[in-house]
TrEMBL record:
Active site feature: 9, 11
Organism: Citrus sinensis (Sweet orange)
Superkingdom of origin organism: Eukaryota
Name of the protein in its database record: Uncharacterized protein
GO MF entry, a single one: phosphatase activity
Keyword Metal-binding: yes
Keywords: Hydrolase, Magnesium, Metal-binding
One Pfam family of this chain: Put_Phosphatase
Cofactor entry: Mg(2+)
Binding site for Mg(2+): 9, 11
Binding site for substrate: 20, 95
Amino acid sequence: MADIVVVFDFDKTIIDCDSDNWVVDELHATELFNQLLPTMPWNSLMGRMMEELHAQGKTIEDIVEVLKRAPIHPSIISAVKAAHDLGCDLKIVSDANLFFIETILKHHGIWELFSEINTNSSFVDEEGRLKIFPHHDFTKSSHACSTNICPPNMCKV
């Protein structure tokens, strides 16, 4: 067991953007996203956007190609590798989703360096559509964080 644990956020920390916004913008769905944003919680909106993109003929391969282009500073990759090489236990706590995180980290060859990733769940269904779900179903109960800094679906403290 490592003596030092390093916990990273993902969006705007490991990558230089918000992965959700990146995919929506790069696949030219920003207008619809902005129309729907005031009407539903973020994770529900991202799930809906994946349905809309699928209905428009966008494939999971299209999403993967966009994710591979997400901006990441080369020194971040070096820093992650160096921390791992020094024996640090690397983890991610993020309000992104597992498919986006896994795709980007694998593309940069650093996926296997992380021992744990706490994020929103996601999977590709039998029709090739990406499904995204909140880490914690906030519609059933609160995650009971008293800091008021966490999103409703995930405690990051």
